[in-house]
Each structure stands twice: as C-alpha cells, then as structure tokens.
C-alpha cells in the first residue's frame, strides 16, 4: 500500500504519518524545506517527491492532503483525478471563494474532511436521543498563542485560513452536526481578542446555530487556555447530558487522530467516507458564514 502525504502545512499530517507508517509505504511532498526536514528525520524511509504531481504519479492508494487553505481546491482537483481515497485535513475551506471552488469539483464518496474529534472514542459512540432536546452547546478549549508569534500566519489570516473562528470553530461545529445532522444554518457570530494582541484574527469567539428542527446551538471558542479540551452538552427539560474529550495520556487515540486514520484506511480499501460530503459542506458553510458575519460588522 502506498500513501501520499501531500503537504505538511500543519501539525496534523505529522501525527497522521506516525499511524500510517505501520500500514503503508509513505511518499511525502512539501515545498517548505524545514517542514520536510522534520518529517524525513522522523520517517527516513519515506520517499520524497519534488512536486505534487510527482507525489501522485503512478496512482497512490490514498492521499492525506494538508496544504494552506487557498491551495486546497487546486490540489484536491489533482488528487481527484487519481481516483484515490483522500483525507483533507481540516478545514477544507475558510472563505466563500474557497468553498465555491470546492463546489465546482467532482468530489466522490471516498473524500473525507473535518475535525478528528468526530472519531474520538469518547464521542464516536454517543447517540444522544434527539427527542426533547432544547439546545446544544460545544465548548472548544485550544490555545492559539503560537499564532501570536507569527507561526503559520496564513491560518490566523481571516482571508486565507479563516483565523481562530474557523480553524478552531470547526471542532465545535463538527461535533454538533455529527450529533444533530446537517440541516443547520448560522444565526449569528461574534469574536474578540482578549489576550493575544498580535493575532490577525481573534482569540475568543462564539457561533449561534439553528437546525431545521428548531433546535438552537452555541459553539464557544476559547483560544486562550492552559489546557486542551472539548465538551458537548445537550440541554433538556429534565437535565443535561455531556461528553468531554481530553488528550489524556494517549492524545492520538483519545482526540480521534487514530480513529480518523482507521476510517481513512477503510476508504483506501474501497469503503465510502463515513461522513458524506454534503455534511462536510454544511459545516464549512456555517464556518464561512460566521467569518463573513464578523467581516460585515
């Protein structure tokens, strides 16, 4: 089996590769020399490709795509031509233009994208009864202080990577849509900079959501935090149900990285994505709409 790591733009493909290395021959492409060096030091047997075209030459069995958001549509188009299973590290789009460009692609049923938290064992098996749900809440605690130093500036730039509202908000929206379904729209959004004054975006944010069923929801994004955790709460008249996802002593497993790659490998074997693209598209639309809402204020 041959898996192509197409881009190393974030930390996620490094984590993905540690799991994939036990299952497949790795081919890697990354234009940034320092990122590539870090990868090959950890995976000296990986074959290095000089271009995306070379990485895809000969038809890999699967592709993990991680490039800056503005480059995703073009890169994904090249991957789709191979027919290989593809996992696009989150988020696949951060602006309306990027999402419109994705909409023009022939995305097949072996393309997966989204937050790994959907596959976290503490959440994946949870099927909350939707009867009597009043509202839902997702709280995302993930520090964004690294961006305040200028690291990966494209992620923190609203017009490129969407900033904190999109890149961290995807975790909360993903969990709530996994629970209640994709018939959801943005009802409002707000963001603020409470601590990291050099950010291009924000370090705190909130999204208000409404499902077609009438259920309302809130996603809280706390980008100033000493600890990483994610919580989902379902409110009912008689009380609340809550799931909390934390890294613990095995973050690869407990945060869903391992489960995501397991799902990806099933796709490599021929299975369809466990998350239909229409659902991913709904999540991206909420996030893009939130970014637009803040820009218009």
From TrEMBL:
InterPro entries to which the protein is assigned, alphabetical: GFO_IDH_MocA-like_dom (IPR055170), NAD(P)-bd_dom_sf (IPR036291)
Gene3D superfamilies, A to Z: Dihydrodipicolinate Reductase, domain 2, NAD(P)-binding Rossmann-like Domain
Top-level division of the source organism's lineage: Bacteria
Domain annotation GFO/IDH/MocA-like oxidoreductase: ranges: 133-227
Pfam family, one: GFO_IDH_MocA_C3
Protein known as: Gfo/Idh/MocA family oxidoreductase
């Amino acid at each position: 089996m041959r898996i192509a790591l197409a881009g190393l733009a974030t930390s996620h493909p490094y984590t993905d590769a540690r799991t994939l290395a036990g299952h497949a021959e790795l081919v890697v492409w990354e234009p940034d020399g320092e990122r590539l060096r870090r990868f090959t030091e950890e995976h000296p047997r990986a074959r290095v490709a000089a271009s995306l075209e070379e990485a895809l030459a000969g038809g890999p069995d699967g592709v993990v795509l991680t490039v800056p958001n503005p480059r995703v549509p073009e890169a994904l188009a090249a991957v789709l031509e191979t027919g290989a299973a593809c996992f696009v590290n989150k988020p696949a789009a951060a602006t309306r233009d990027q999402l419109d460009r994705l909409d023009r692609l022939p995305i097949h049923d072996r393309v997966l994208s989204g937050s790994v938290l959907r596959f976290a064992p503490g959440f994946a098996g949870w099927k909350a009864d939707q009867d009597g749900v009043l509202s839902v809440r997702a709280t995302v605690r993930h520090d964004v202080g690294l961006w305040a130093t200028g690291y990966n500036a494209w992620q923190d730039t609203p017009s490129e990577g969407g900033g904190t509202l999109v890149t961290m908000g995807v975790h909360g929206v993903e969990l709530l849509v996994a629970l209640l379904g994709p018939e959801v729209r943005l009802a409002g959004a707000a963001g603020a900079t409470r601590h990291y004054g050099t950010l291009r975006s924000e370090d705190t944010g909130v999204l208000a959501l409404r499902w077609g069923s009438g259920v309302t929801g809130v996603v809280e994004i706390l980008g100033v935090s000493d600890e990483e955790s994610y919580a989902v709460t379902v409110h009912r008249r008689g009380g609340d149900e809550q799931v909390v996802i934390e890294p613990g002593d095995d973050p690869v497993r407990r945060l869903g990285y391992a489960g995501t790659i397991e799902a990806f490998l099933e796709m490599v074997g021929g299975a369809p994505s466990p998350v239909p693209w229409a659902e991913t598209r709904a999540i991206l639309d909420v996030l893009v709409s939130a970014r637009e809402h803040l820009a218009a204020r």
